[in-house]
Structures are given as C-alpha cells and as structure tokens.
Specification:
single chain, alpha/beta, seven-stranded mixed beta sheet, three-stranded antiparallel beta sheet, 11 helices, 15 strands, about 40% helix
C-alpha cells in the first residue's frame, strides 16, 4: 500500500497531496478556505471519487468556519453556507461523491444548533474519512472472494483507484492489493491513462511501492494485451453509477468494456454507496465534464501538438450496464439485472 496519503486534517486546515506533481515531486497544499479546496479538486491536485467526497466534506467545514469568523449568524450564515456548497459542487460535475458530500454536510448544518455546528460538521467529516477506510477494506474482501482459490491472476486496470484516490487501500486497486496479499496475482497491467497519465504516474507508483508484479501499457495497447496475454479480469473504479448500472469513469473505460466483452473477459466496477446516483435512471443523464484542451495539447508545459489545434477533451465516458460483469460494493457484488440489484442495494443502505 502506498505510504502517501491523499489528504489529512491538520490543525484546522485540510492538507492535500498535490497529485499533479507525482511521481517526481512530493508536495502538499494547505487549504484554509473552501475556495482553496474547490481549486485543488478542479485541477486534480486531489482526485478519485472517494477522496473528492471526503475533501468536499472538510471543505464545507472550512466554509462554515469562514462564515462564523466573518460574524455571520442566522439566515445570513445559512445563505452563506448554502452558496459555498453550490460553488464547491460545481468544481467537478461528474463525480457524484462530491455532490453527495456537499448534500450530507448541508443537511447536517441545517438540522444542527448554530453554536454546535462547527464541531458537529468537523466530526462528521472525520467520520466520513474513517468510513471510507472501512469501505475500502470491505470492497477489497468482497472482490477478492470472487477469485477464491485461483492463482496466477492477470488483471488489467485503468486510471488510479488506490490509496491516492481514497482514504484507504482503494477501490479497484484495493481488490488487487488484497489478492496480492494472498499470493494470487501474477501480473497487473496498468493503462497509462491519457491525457494526464494517472495510470502511469499514480497507479504505477502504488504498484511498485506495494511490490505487486506489473506491466505498464499505453491505452491503445489494451486490445493487443487482451488478445495475446491471458487476462482474468478488467477491474476499474467509477465516478457515478446510475440506477440501471451504467457507470461513468475515467475516459477510456467505455472502450475497455467493449474490448473485454469481445474477448470474453469479466469486467468489474468497484465502488462504494456514495458513488451511486439513485436519482438517475441511466448513464444518458450523467453530465460529462469537458476539461482544458491544454491537457491534450501538452504535458507539464511541453507541447506535443500544434498549440492552436482544436481539442475534444471529455474527462469521463460511460460503460453500459450490459457490458459490466459485476459491481463490487462494500455490501457484496451486484450482478445483472442491475435495476433490481441496485434497488435492493439502495434499500439495504436505508436499514
């Protein structure tokens, strides 16, 4: 498991590992305001759906503290706090964990006595951080159970879903880590994940630090690897899952789901309850974030394309539920038909 932590609450500030600088430079961003948290989320200094959610929770604590320091009370404080939540929610529109955390903290604020709100919200954010660690462990166990008794596993993954994307051992990476602990992994194939190379920079770092046998591949090698290397599973995370199982994840996931189906390779999504959006019926309702064209034209300021070439840069795509073998959650593995399985899962969360 990576020794690097995605975030930590320290002396009233949120300290974020700047993941845009990895692996070459380890540096931290100390956030004293909600706007600084939103900015870090926007530029991917902190990323990964679960980590974004926890960072947002702490961001709302900072928003409340700032309002109180300005002497706001009553309706003025409520309006301030709600507006700050809207700003934070807009930082990244696709990752539902962000809006989930903002909604949880906003609801808690409005049902709490003003004089107690800051301490109550701070404890809630800490509890969400601790809960994420436990969720990661549960998902790891449930996912590893699918491969009980099997050895020499070869797994392909995309983007980064480990400790850098969560507060625990990870989602999809957490399953891989647990399988490695049990001596079941022969090789993990990690997509580099263009255009920002989260797979190469972040997953590559975590695989090497964890001493997990691995090979880094470019995204356009996935079909070759599936055709020529025996592959036991494709395992990825998610940023938003619709009620029918359609799953939005880092751009390139849709293509992997198609390739896996063609090559008859099981394709698994690994995500906790906070990644499910029970309010939408399908992936068609998921807003896809369009990011800065400079991310495609250049990397770390070095251009590998004409500086004025037009760019299409969606951050996510949606794997259709028909191509998903199973969705690994903290409560177990959901399997088709997903509309029924997800309804049952939603009910279990309310018990």
């Amino acid at each position: 498991m990576s020794a690097l932590k995605s975030l930590q609450w320290d002396k009233g500030d949120l300290v974020l590992l700047d993941q845009t600088k990895l692996p070459g430079t380890i540096t931290y961003i100390r956030c004293h305001t909600m706007e600084e948290v939103a900015g870090a989320i926007r530029v991917l200094a902190v990323r990964g759906a679960p980590a974004i959610g926890v960072a947002a929770a702490y961001g709302m604590v900072l928003a409340l503290r700032e309002g109180l320091e300005k002497g706001l009370h009553g309706d003025r404080l409520s309006q301030w706090f709600d507006r700050k939540g809207e700003i934070l929610n807009d930082a990244r529109p696709t990752a539902v964990n962000l809006s989930w955390a903002v909604k949880v903290m906003t609801a808690l604020f409005h049902e709490t006595e003003e004089r107690e709100a800051l301490s109550v919200l701070t404890e809630k954010a800490r509890a969400m951080e601790e809960e994420d660690k436990n969720l990661c462990d549960a998902m790891a166990d449930n996912g590893a159970h699918l491969f009980a008794g099997r050895k020499h596993l070869r797994i392909l993954t995309h983007c980064n879903t480990g400790a850098l994307a969560t507060c625990g051992i990870g989602t999809a990476f957490g399953v891989i880590y647990r399988l490695h602990e049990r001596g079941q992994v022969e090789c993990v194939y990690a997509d580099e994940t263009r255009p920002l190379l989260q797979g190469a920079r972040l997953t590559g770092t975590e695989l090497m630090e964890s001493h997990i046998p691995c090979r880094l591949i470019s995204d356009n090698m996935a079909a070759y690897v599936m055709a020529h290397e025996h592959m036991d599973a494709v395992m990825v995370g998610a940023d938003r899952i619709a009620s029918n199982g359609d799953s939005a994840n880092k751009i390139g996931t849709y293509g992997l789901s198609i390739l896996a189906a063609y090559h008859h390779i099981p394709f698994y999504i690994v995500a906790p309850f906070s990644t499910f959006d029970f309010s939408i019926s399908s992936g068609k309702e998921i807003k896809i974030e369009e990011r800065d064209p400079e991310e495609v034209r250049s990397f770390h300021g070095v251009y590998d394309a004409p500086k004025d070439i037009p760019v299409l840069n969606p951050a996510f795509d949606v794997a259709p539920h028909e191509l998903i073998t199973g969705i690994i959650t903290e409560k177990g593995v959901l399997t088709p038909p997903y509309d029924a399985a997800i309804k049952k899962y939603e009910r279990s969360l309310q018990l």
